[in-house]
Each structure stands twice: as structure tokens, then as C-alpha cells.
Design the sequence.
């Protein structure tokens, strides 16, 4: 089988390397040789092994009938979307690592692949090398997924782990992460939770069998967390993680991204640095966790390569993926109940006690002359009402393992 | 699709329940309704919903052309093997949770399924509901698996966790586990490591693409461990786990089952109680861990159900599984190097120092008037030679994360 790669960046060059160096093993698994015929990139790579296959013209790929499968590792919506739609309509299977594209256009591209009896696969779009898309599609098919709860953004997990270990503040750790290349110059997509929201929308679409719009996922980032929050967390025996979740309650679907206080009883507690961990709860299978490096050139490339091999093994056959074009409604988070860890100024102590008098509260040993407490089992809307009446320094929700 | 179940024990009745209660979801995922037409068991189940479908005669299933797929949850080699071979030769796909059968006859049964263009699937044979067989088959296909290292026996993990937490001795914890139903009356297969050896042989066969014979897996059990071993472990910042492993070094394959001292840096450290955790290292993908409940009625049944749905989705097509009838040689463990934690009587201290003088040793703070030390980077054969010359109370190998 002849393939092409769109984009010779980190992941794209990794895919080129995997197909160039793992030849025998791939031939054995795919049942045939797979060769990269063309690589599209606007740049030149003099002296690089890719040179002989490099093209600057998308038509060299789209119009080549010999190329049966195209890997897309450009990232972003455009021109990826326009390219892939044309390729699929032409009957070429596509494998992508582009979560933005899958979150935005997955429904439509899956539908074209279905009609053309080819495949649109995207294992590498969530969790890098961690197998999560295919297990959700296949391994849980006899089950019903009722809860997904994951650490699926490596940049924020690196920052939070550093803040926890070093007692450092957000801005300092971010600057260090940027210097080391673990965070982007413009970190907004990561630190505000948008990247995690796109990924959980992809996982939720597979779990629900319908389109979950990432814009419906209520998202809070990590930018307001301080060293003091981590000190409180430590005293509670918890750590703070950015948690992306999807949860079915009585047939209703909730989905959020936000920092949460994680207890030591869950395996998510030990997911540190740039690692990802995704906990999936099925009605029958109970908690199953997938853990590993959520990014990186060769790990992600190997996940893309596995998709390409599935394409080779499924010629003329669309691998069924239950993700219809029906829209999955996401419930308003305001109805959801949570335990909130809350910090207010000492001068607001009595006011806070009055305002939160309707719920059970546990006072915590204060730091820095503050008043800190946990408000139990409170609806989000009630919290928001109460929060208007008192000056809140910060609040973080608790992950309640028993509820999950 | 009409299916049958062989054996109405814990797992079999779970499979019956899953197909009886998760009807809509399964129909959506499989693309058609799946009904259990017959259940084979020698016993009667008066009043049980299975009653109307129950048969005592295997012919009612084997000779029914309407039954396309058979679930086997009887366990053991016979009559499972004879039944399944006939069913496959008749063109019926088979899904099994029976690790003994897969370890003994997997190669032959897979070959029949290939020839008949049907499927022989066994996701539930290792790790209960944890997806591990299919990820090894599909998700790592672009990679090369170089190392599998897992806690894959729930009974022994429960016993070891209890010994660690309570400072209790092996015999007491085993008795308690038996009383609670976590260990069998005859626990030998679990505590001597034979169950784990069968499971790692299955995983290694998939990783190597050739038949790994479980009888070639060098196996040590947990019966010699004492409370004092756990006390030493704690002081080293480690825990003791029964580790089943497969490792490729320079094209040679090693596979063993034995208790090991696990450092806190690996995610296996937190796999406790009856949970399973399997760490897979690929050449490209690096460490990926699969974690969850490794047993239990409905978790295991849901894994079997997922296999049945794959059968429905792949009518007339054999899902390629790279596990040939070529025999995979397993290297003699004697050539492998390990770090050994060793305890000898105080009176043997000087003798031990002399005997182990060829390797680097670290002395540990002694307990109970013993002499305890770690002998570093020692070939198994050299250890065995040295061990003959001095009275060893106990020895446990260290899991070296850096080496892996």
C-alpha cells in the first residue's frame, strides 16, 4: 500500500521515520509492505531522507490514484479540512492526529468514509500513543460507558505537577515550561482547558454514539491556581489536576473541564508530569485506566502508524464507528452537584458562613489568615448564587470517587 | 445473530445477563440484535431466566445451523477443547474467557478460524475487563513491543497487598482470602504463579507473533514471602508484587513470573488488591499502562460480549491475529542479569560476603539479627552458584525501571 503524509513537522516526520525503520514488523502486521510515496510540506528539507518524496503541491497526492491512504499531521482546521474532505470523497482513507479537526469536522468526515467504504481514523488525536479511541469503539461495545474522567493535557499536567512539588506559583512554572518547550509561546489553548475540551468531546462522541460539540463543554482553566491551593490540597491528602470528564446520569450527559482536587484512592492521583491518564467507567466493566505518554514525536507517530495498518487490513470495508450525526445534548452544569473547596478573606468569615448556611460545610485549618472550608453536595447554580454575595479568593471542586 | 453459551457459571451467567439487559446498546454497536439461543450446563437452574434456553446436550448447539457464534466460559482444557475445535471446524466463531485453553491450544484454534474465515477471540482470557488483547493486536501494530511487565493475577495481588498493609504472614492472609472467596480452596495455580505464566504466554505470543509455550516461562510463586520481607521492602521504598514479564533483548525473548521489589516510580507500585495492571513498552510508544479490575462476573462478561460484537461486525472475515504456529524460543533465564535482595543468617555474614565478593553489594539495616544485602547486576547462573554455598533465608529480585 502506498501512502502520503501531509505535514512534515514533529508528528509527520515521526510517521515517516516509523514507516522507514519498522519495515519488517509492519509488513508482518499489515500483511503487506507500506511505503510513504509522498510528503507534503511547504518547506524544503535539504539532506533529509524525506527529500526525494517531498512535494509542495497537494495535487501530487490528491490526483495520484496509487496513493490509497493519507496521514494528516498538519494540525489546525485549515487547510486540513479542505484537503481531507477532498481525499475522502476521492476514496482515499485518512488517518489523523489532529484533534481540532476531529472535534470540528469528525461527524462529517466519518459520514463520507462510511459512504465511500473507506476509513477515517484518529487514534492519535487523544492521548498520543495511549490506545483509547479504539478501545472505546471496540472493547467497551458490550458495555455502556457511563463515565470518562481524564488527565488529557500534558502541558497543564506538567505545570500542576511542578507547582505541587516545588510549591511554586503558576506564572513562574509556566515561564519555565515555556523555556523548556513543554508549553507553547501562546499557551491559552492548553492552560484555559480548550485543548482538553476538544479531546473530551471526541471521547464523549464515541461513548455516546452521537456528536458532542466541544463548545458545549463547560471549561475552566488552571491560571487562577496558586501555591496556597496546593498547600491546602496536600493537607487534604489530595492533588490538583485538570480533569476532563463526561458523565451519564439517568440518561443525561454532562461534560466539563476544570481543575479538581483528586484523592489518593484513585489511580489518577499518580499521573504526573506530561503523562496522561484516562479512567473509563462502564456499567459492567467498572473502572479501567489507560495511562501513558500523551504526546511526543515517536509515541504519537506509532499510534498513527497503527491506524494506517488498520486501513491496510480493512480494504474496501468501513470499520464501523458509532458516532452518528445526531447531536448529543449536553446538560447545563448548573444542575450538577459538587463538593467545593472555598477560600475567602478572614474578614468575610461570618458572611461566608451565613451565605453557605444551607449546605454542610467543613472548616479547614486556615493559611495566611484566610477562612477556608469545604461546602458539600452543592448544586453549581446554588454555588454561583452564593459566590456573588462574598469575596471568594479561589474555589476548586473535589473529585468524589464514591459518586463515580 | 444467534449465539450459545457453554457453561452457566460465574462468567457464563454474566454473559447471559449482559446480552439480556444491554439490548439496545449492543444492537447499536453490533448493527443487529444478538440473542442467546442456547446455554449448555449439566446442572438445572429452576426459576432462573436461563431455564427456557438451557440444554444438557452439546449437540443442540453444535448441530444448530442458526447458531453462528459460541461463547465458552467453562474453563479448563476438557471438554472445552474438544467442543471448540468441533464448533470452529463447523464454521462457528468462538469467544472464550478460558486462559488455560488459549495457552494450551490457541495456536491450533486460531489456525482453524483463519482457514474457515471465522474468528476465535479471547479478550477476557487475560485481565478480565481490561482491554489488553485487542490493543496488543491492533494498537501496537505500527510499533514493536519490547517489554510487557504486569500484575495479572488478582488473588496473589490481594494477598500481597494484605501482607504489606497488615504486616501479616502469608499463611494467615491466604486463609482469610480463602474464607472471603478471593482465593480458591486449592490455591496452587494462583500462588505458585502458573495462572500468571499462562496469561503472560498469551500476551507474549501476541507480542512476538509466534507461539510462546507457558511451560517455557520460568515461574516462582509467592509462598515463601514473609512479613519481614515486606518490612525490608518498605525501608527500600518498594512493594513486593508478583510480576509476569516478557522482554526482548537483542532479538532474544525472555519470559518469567516471580515476586519482585517494585519502586514507587513505576505505576505498577499503586496496583493494589484484586486489581491488575499491565505495563507495555514499545520501541516507539514507550510505557503504556492498562489498569482495572482483572476479574469479576460482569467486568469479564462485558469483555466477552465485546468479542461477540466483533464477530457480528466481521461476518465472513477473519480478523488478522499475528500469532503463527512457529514456536517462539524462550531464552534460559540463567543468562539474564538481575539485582537480588538477599537475606542470610547473621552467622553466615562473612561467608556471604566472600561468596558474593564478585559483585557489588549494598548492605541493609538488618532485622531480627540477620544479614541482608542487595547484590547488583548478577547473572541468574552466578546467583544460583553462589546460593549453593550459603544458607539463604530468602531472596527477591528488584524491578529495575531504568533497565526497562
Sequence:
Amino acid at each position: 500500500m502506498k501512502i502520503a503524509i501531509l505535514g512534515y513537522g514533529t508528528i509527520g516526520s515521526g510517521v515517516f521515520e516509523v514507516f522507514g525503520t519498522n519495515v519488517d514488523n509492519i509488513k508482518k502486521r499489515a500483511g503487506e509492505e507500506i511505503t510513504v510515496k509522498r510528503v507534503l510540506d511547504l518547506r524544503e528539507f535539504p539532506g533529509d531522507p524525506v527529500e526525494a518524496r517531498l512535494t509542495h503541491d497537494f495535487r501530487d497526492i490528491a490526483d495520484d490514484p496509487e496513493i490509497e491512504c493519507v496521514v494528516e499531521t498538519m494540525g489546525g482546521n485549515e487547510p486540513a479540512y479542505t484537503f481531507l474532505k477532498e481525499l475522502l470523497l476521492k476514496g482515499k482513507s485518512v488517518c489523523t492526529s489532529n484533534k481540532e479537526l476531529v472535534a470540528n469536522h469528525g461527524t462529517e468526515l466519518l459520514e463520507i468514509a462510511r459512504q465511500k467504504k473507506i476509513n477515517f481514523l484518529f487514534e492519535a488525536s487523544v492521548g498520543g500513543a495511549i490506545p483509547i479511541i479504539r478501545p472505546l469503539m471496540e472493547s467497551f461495545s458490550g458495555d455502556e460507558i457511563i463515565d470518562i474522567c481524564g488527565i488529557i493535557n500534558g502541558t497543564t499536567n506538567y505545570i500542576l505537577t511542578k507547582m505541587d512539588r516545588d510549591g511554586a506559583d503558576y506564572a513562574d512554572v509556566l515561564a519555565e515550561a515555556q523555556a523548556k518547550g513543554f508549553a507553547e509561546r501562546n499557551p491559552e489553548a492548553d492552560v484555559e482547558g480548550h485543548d482538553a475540551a476538544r479531546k473530551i468531546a471526541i471521547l464523549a462522541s464515541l461513548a455516546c454514539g452521537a456528536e458532542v460539540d466541544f463548545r458545549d463543554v463547560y471549561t475552566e482553566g488552571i491560571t487562577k491556581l496558586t501555591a496556597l491551593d496546593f498547600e491546602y490540597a496536600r493537607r487534604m491528602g489530595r492533588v490538583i489536576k485538570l480533569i476532563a470528564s463526561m458523565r451519564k446520569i439517568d440518561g443525561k450527559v454532562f461534560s466539563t473541564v476544570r481543575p479538581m482536587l483528586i484523592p489518593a484512592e484513585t489511580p489518577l492521583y499518580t499521573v504526573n508530569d506530561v503523562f496522561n491518564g484516562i479512567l473509563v467507567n462502564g456499567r459492567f466493566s467498572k473502572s479501567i485506566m489507560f495511562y501513558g505518554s500523551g504526546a511526543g514525536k515517536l509515541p504519537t507517530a506509532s499510534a498513527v502508524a497503527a491506524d494506517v495498518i488498520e486501513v491496510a487490513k480493512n480494504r474496501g470495508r468501513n470499520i464501523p464507528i458509532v458516532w452518528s450525526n445526531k447531536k448529543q445534548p449536553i446538560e447545563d452544569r448548573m444542575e450538577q452537584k459538587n463538593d467545593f473547596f472555598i477560600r475567602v478573606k478572614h474578614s468575610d468569615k461570618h458572611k461566608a458562613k451565613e451565605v453557605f448556611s444551607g449546605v454542610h460545610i467543613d472548616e479547614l485549618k486556615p493559611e495566611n489568615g484566610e477562612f477556608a472550608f469545604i461546602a458539600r453536595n452543592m448544586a453549581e447554580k446554588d454555588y454561583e448564587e452564593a459566590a456573588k454575595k462574598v469575596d471568594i479568593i479561589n474555589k476548586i471542586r473535589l473529585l468524589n470517587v464514591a459518586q463515580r
